[in-house]
Predict the structure.
Amino acid sequence: MKHKKWDLIIRPHTRWLDLNLKEVWRYRDLIGQFVRRDIVAVYKQTLLGPVWFVVQPILTTVVFTFVFGSLAGLGPKDVPTVLFYMAGIIPWNYFNECLMKTSSTFTGNASIYGKVYFPRLVIPFSVVISNLAKFAVQLVLLICVWLYYYFQGNYQFNINAYLLLLPVVIIIMAGLGLSMGILISSLTTKYRDLSFLVAFGVELLKFASTLVFPLFLIKNETYRMIIWANPMTSVIETFRYALMGKGAEMNLMALSYSAGFMVVVFFLAALLFNRVEKSFMDTV
Amino acid sequence: MHPIVIQAEDISKQYRLGLLSGKTLSEDFKRFLYRMAGKPDPLAFVGAENDRTVASAERYVWALKNINFDVRQGEVMGIIGRNGAGKSTLLKILSRVTTPTTGEIRIKGKIASLLEVGTGFHPELTGRENVFLNGAILGMSKAEIKRKFDEIVQFSGVARYIDTPVKRYSSGMYVRLAFAVAAHLEPEILVIDEVLAVGDTEFQKKCLGKIKEVAGGGRTVLFVSHNMGAVSDICDRAIMIEKGSITSTGVADAVIREYVNSTMKTDLTSYDSLKDAQFRRGSGQVRISALSMHRHGSDVEQHEFDYRSDVSFNLSFQIYEPVQELYFLLALRSSLSREMVTATERIRIPVAGKSGEMQFRITLPAVNLSPGVYETYYWLGSSKQEMPYDVIDNMTAPLVIRVPENESALQTGYFQLDYKTEL
């Protein structure tokens, strides 16, 4: 038989790890369109529009400052409480939203997936990117608050070189949200049970991080280890430390651990996602 | 001869029936163990063939079984079969929405499939934004959409509302815009589902026209449909799928003939969908129990007739509850656009309190319908009651009018006008 070159072969199962990122790249325009849709559509027919991006972290910060800072007395001592909480809430929200939204990738987009083929990873990627835009707006808010305290002069910030680590930290938190999200979405196409646990699990993760209290309050070594084991802890801590130079603990070991955690989960998730995406339409 | 661009080899697809039960985890586990041990899947071959009329005790069903076909470049191939025969499954596999259980399809060239128009349309976005979004979902690049944008808007005819959110559109406008995007897709191979030709009759014609235009332009097209008229109109070749297997393949018209024959063989009393009240409309006081088409004066059942021949319909009906009056109506529907082409008046049948089985024959002399496929619609009812006794709508063989051998210009319209000329 004459040798033929085929452009596409549809087969029952492909290799275990065949992410085909090249194909995702070819569909970059589609990622762009999804990102656009996610950002534009949400605030259509609202008066304030993108202002809502900053309302949510402001309100959460107010609540946290009042409940955890004033009432419970968990606030930090040498940095502004408002800044302390906001610097935790903003990266946490980003992680949380990426995770929640990507975790319903298959179930939430079945109507599109069921009709057209495009690389399935396009949707989780676009979620991560569109949330990044929201995150950027919130980051501007954070910087404004920071500038306010800086010029007010009541607090001294140690401006330090860890600020340069911020892009790395952002990549880590985006990666964490994405990988844990697609891991969950791959596991829930067949057995929905897990989806009930997700919201609860994220809540647990939230309180097992330094989001609501500064780390120095925890003296017990075992508890400290548990909190450091949460990959988001080092993200939040680095964030705070980079901004203020105190009120948080800078731990490069922990940050590397989070990066490693992200890479491992990403490959695990990619492996599963890859298995599931080919035929999830039959079970979803 | 043109090179082969699609080669399907031994495609099978298995589905599980019913919901996930408590057993699935253990089944999955069992499969996993067997796979680890390098043994074949213990649960893979318990499936029954795909026949939806027989309630299956098996928990797995083969929606497709050993499908093989080739498509050459520039060919327009129709895939026909009854509902549930496996057409949609094949379509899904070709569109890469799902994978086959076994087998392989090799494809050469850029392929795009249209199972639906307007996939991913977001109600809050404007027409313009949705054109870009939908185009990207269908695989077009931003530059490509930009280039074709004016053409798309022109084709859709909603230029005035292009910056209005599509949730404010009428459903007609919505479909028009959605189809306009799809129509400007330019892959080398196009897979189309006929059901996408939705909307009003005029729009359906436009859709089919566009599909025909694409097909005529030398593109390779796979057209999935149970609309014989459209397949005959558009396709060169066709394959027929029955119960998950290919039962016929060849020149489109020959395959259609076979398909029509196969639907005709099922006589009314054994035709499950006719027995099943769920599929049958009407109050059921009187039911058509058998019907057949004949050339006038002949006893041989047939459904294909020469142009302007006399067509007789023999009907038997069963009167279950005596009725005061009984009217019968026969209508014909275009299988292309599904619009009613013509109908008889309500014909009174004298029954006056009788019960039991009755015979009835109606003859249409010198039917001057244009050559084509016409779906049949039989109606039994009374002049007073709203609810008919019985309706058989396109459940039996269609009426096919053959193209006369010497005249080829008979294609326009459903009828020939009768005329006289004077000089």
